[in-house]
Amino acid sequence: MTPTEAVKGFQRAKPFGRRRHSPLPHFRTPSGALGTICAAFFLVLLLVQPAWARPARDVAAVLSAMSLEEKVGQLFTVYFEGPQVSDDLRSMIADYHIGGVIYYGVSGNVENPTQVAGLSRDIQAEAAKTPRGVGLFVSVDQEGGPVARLRRGVTLFPSNMAVAATGRPKNARIAAEITARELAALGINVNFAPVADVNVNPGNPIIGIRSYGQDPAKVGRFVAAAVRGYAANGMLCTPKHFPGHGDTAVDSHLGLPVVTHDAETFARVDLPPFKAAIAAGARAVMTAHVELPAVDPSNAPSTLSRPVLIGLLRQKMRFDGLIVTDSLGMGALAGTVGTVEAAPRALAAGADVLLFGADKGHTPDQQRQAYARVLAAVRSGEVPPARLEESVGRILTVKKGLGLLTAKDIATPATDARILAARIATPAHLRQAEKIARESMTLVRDVKKLLPLKNTDRTLVIRPAKGAPDVDEPAIKALSAWPGTEVLTVSPDPAPDEIAPAVARARPVQAVVLLVSDAAKRPGQAELARSMLDAAPDKTVLVASGAPYDAALFPKAPCLAATYGDVPVSLAALGQALFGDIPFKGRCPVNIAPRESAVK
């Protein structure tokens, strides 16, 4: 099959939205001077007609017009620094022909919705100036819960595990639909979500409440619902992290995890949600930097593994959409093969989009080095040119489906705050997030019948800080809105000189609500909980405000609830449930078994 034939095959894929055709009528052209005038008149009409009425660009034609350098650039989705189009980013677009960008708060890309919308507008304007004028993927990680780069001025949904605790896959679709609409209003066209990992390891350091739970079939139903929600609203999503990151003990941002499942367990536990996502119409999948000996005995990270990406995902699972790498700057690759060397190896293994995120120790200069390395690999034949043609053809086809093939025709996002207010964080959107949060609240037990709390009582709420203002400040505001509440913030891992004063603060109040998050790794939190339960067992309500696995550390706690995260809508719902305004309806999507490190 020639590259052109391959591209024609890609073009058979269904577009994300309806195609609008406006063919010019056929007529007989008059001859002579009148014919010349008519021809000129209709030429003007052709030039001034709206973008949607112009003949669609052909992917094969765009691909054939591209230089090798332009084709290599299309593979790259990169991070950059600052809230505006910097000279460095302008160079990446013009000189390195990049195919996309990714927004991060830590890189200073996200200040407020108006600024993000303006940034998206300006990025596409720079893309329109390039010789091919192809639009860019503008991407973000907006999963909801703990992983959301935009946290203020948008509708922030509870975590995936909270959504699953409602028992209603429809809620996953609602969250995806609203998230897609709001991101699109800001000029973002790719969301690296949803998480399709099955979290069967309570000690998993990186997935946890980002997962919909531990039951593969149930996780698959929620993932499929989310995929449909994104697709119905024109947003490219990337179910992740293929082939599965749910049973790992290492954070791939820091090191290289190993999935030890045998072939049967892997097929039964890890694959079903990805199969469900593909069946639901997913047009992209994100890889995981994990070793999977059951599929690739060479122990190559899956992102760099041809048996995983081609043998399993392409051939056995018949997936023909985009394969997007997780960030090549993460520790799993940076600390092994190296970020620059990972780029050509991922392409050779079958990846289409090479993602470079704002990872610790990774710099924008490495993106340029990786570009040069891929270019050299294709020129030398180390990566076959047909492999490059295949990926670029697939990228352009997906961009065409998203309406990105011609940058100058991309709708410009509004930057007027009043217009944006009618599109993002609207009362209707916020009500849906609040509803999902209320339905997710889970009461693990209340053996002493401490609930409901009384509005007239003084209540001390103790919360460990996360160390991020965009997380801590909204959380404190939500907790402070509870009736008769005093909020005490302690360190993430409280020292003894914090614990004693916190326990003393509890003496004069009628109720204590103690939030714990990741207490298994923070002994100070566990000690604070033990001390509080010893001092005030009849008025202490313990809340697992992160992963519900923390509940297993405190088998003697008489009253225990779970929120699956501490986004503002979840903390507001927790208050309503504790004070009896709403019932606890949630059901925990994972097993909570007593752990060896349990606090007695």
Structure in words:
The chain is of the alpha/beta class. It contains 22 helices and 16 strands. The protein has helices spanning 3-10, 32-48, 59-65, 68-74, 87-94, 113-128, 160-165, 169-185, 216-232, 263-269, 272-279, 306-316, 331-334, 339-349, 364-380, 385-402, 417-421, 427-440, 469-480, 496-505, 523-535, 568-578, and strands at residues 76-78, 100-102, 137-140, 142-144, 147-148, 190-191, 236-237, 284-286, 322-324, 354-356, 442-446, 459-464, 485-490, 511-516, 540-544, 559-562. Helix 6 (113-128) links the parallel strand 2 and strand 3 (137-140). The termini are far apart. Residues 1-31, 33-54 and 596-600 have low confidence and may be disordered.
C-alpha Rg (nearest Å): 26 Å
Query: Which geometry do the CA atoms define?
Result: globular
Helix content percent band: 40-55%
Main sheet strand line-up: 7-6-3-2-1-10
| Poorly predicted runs of 5 or more residues | 1-31, 33-54, 596-600
| Multimeric status of the protein | single chain
Structural class, please? alpha/beta
Distance between the termini: 67 Å
Helical element count? 22
Overview in brief:
With 600 residues, the chain is α/β, with parallel strands linked by helices. The protein has helices at residues 3-10, 32-48, 59-65, 68-74, 87-94, 113-128, 160-165, 169-185, 216-232, 263-269, 272-279, 306-316, 331-334, 339-349, 364-380, 385-402, 417-421, 427-440, 469-480, 496-505, 523-535, 568-578; strands spanning 76-78, 100-102, 137-140, 142-144, 147-148, 190-191, 236-237, 284-286, 322-324, 354-356, 442-446, 459-464, 485-490, 511-516, 540-544, 559-562.
